[in-house]
Design brief:
This protein is of the alpha+beta class. The protein contains three helices and two strands, in the order E-E-H-H-H.
Length: 81
């Protein structure tokens, strides 16, 4: 972040040379979590670590399962403008 303080995303190598993104900008975070949430995967090791704590629900699901769960909770995800 010191090298590129205005960069919205910083790509780096995580555990076992897997690529990861660090989101450093609120606008980029909103775009990733809202508009392009199905373009990114969660890290496998992170899912295995967290699933025992929070369960396999909306936070950890992906793809069609995530779409189904999100549709059920649609009111909580509506954008207020």
């Amino acid at each position: 972040m010191r090298q590129w303080p205005r960069a919205p995303l910083i790509r780096f190598l995580a555990v076992i040379s897997s690529e990861a993104l660090l989101v450093t900008n609120l606008a980029a975070q909103k775009e990733i979590l809202g508009d392009k949430c199905y373009s990114f995967r969660k890290l496998d090791w992170w899912v295995r670590l967290v699933v025992d704590i929070v369960g396999y629900g909306l936070v950890l699901s992906e793809g069609e399962e995530h779409k189904r769960q999100r549709k059920l909770l649609n009111g909580a995800f509506s954008r207020l403008r």
